Amino acid sequence: MRRKIILPVALLMLLTLQSCHKRCQCIGYNGGIVEYTPEEVNAQGKTCSNMIYYEGLATQRYSVCEWKY
Length: 69
Known about the structure:
The protein is α+β, with helices and mostly antiparallel strands. 35% of the residues lie in helices and 20% in strands. It contains 2 helices and 3 strands; from the N terminus they run αββαβ. It has helices at residues 2-19, 38-43; strands at residues 23-27, 33-36, 64-68. The chain has a 3-stranded antiparallel sheet with strand order 2-1-3. The model has no long low-confidence stretch (mean pLDDT 85).
């Protein structure tokens, strides 16, 4: 009976811990890495993949942006 309770609790804790570290990681053309929190991405009204562009311009700022957990 004890195992039936421990497994779901352990899985829930694992999922909770992983969701806390979600970051939008952008890699620049010079190799530099910049990370944004989900709140910072939402504040700019963008998705992570759209963070490669400068605000209001179609010019790319980063080579790639993707979610990292």
